[in-house]
Description:
The two termini are 18 Å apart. This protein has 6 helices and 9 strands; from the N terminus they run βαβαβαβαβαββαββ. The chain has 2 domains: 1-100, Rossmann fold; 107-204, Formyl transferase, N-terminal domain (Rossmann fold, 3-Layer(aba) Sandwich), CATH 3.40.50. The protein is an alpha/beta fold and 204 residues long. The protein is globular and about 50 Å long. Bound molecules: 5-O-phosphono-beta-D-ribofuranosylamine (GRF). Residues 7, 9-13, 86-87, 107-109, 175, 178 line the site of 5-O-phosphono-beta-D-ribofuranosylamine.
Amino acid sequence: MNIAVLASGGGSNFQALLNAIREGVLPARICAVVSNNSAAGALDIARSQNIPGHHLSQKQFPSVDAYSEHLISVLGDHRADFIALAGYMKKIPGTIIARYRNRITNIHPALLPSFGGPGMYGMRVHEAVIASGVKLSGATVHLVDEEYDRGPIVLQKAVEVTPDDDPESLARKVLKIEHEIYPQALKAFAEDRVLLKGTKVWIR
Length: 204
Ligand code: GRF
């Protein structure tokens, strides 16, 4: 499986995927990294590992269509057959979602369908979790469809929210879980163990 990673930030989830590949846990390769942010740590990691990195932002193109077309050609050039969003902050154009239907995953730092959707990203998620008083949070890997954070859930793992947690400490706990379950979920795709049953997804 040739995975293209799309990342906007530090890239610790990308790094976790690389570690799993290196350890022989994840039978896949990262064929390219695409970031909308030229200063993304994920692009630095790509450079250090000799993985092709691309800075691609919609702002560089006259229209969404022109941008989508270019992104599709970049993915094709690297023979990407799977897209892993890893802290990617931009919306994926509809043509790409259609082209890679059920082959795009995202990792979200909460237990969806709670604490997701437009505006629910980064520290805002953990602030909302703490403010709500829920006792469990966690991470969710889901398929990407046309709606933010709404695609079928592939894998989740919970962490406890404790009385001494603040958004920062919760974010650290959740990120640790993200680094566990993202490689696990992608391993299931790579080994063809992901079962689509209607709108639900199960790992065999
Ligand atoms: C993670 O919490 C991820 O769930 C969220 O953005 C953060 C990215 O972290 N979507 P990193 O760039 O992978 O370190």
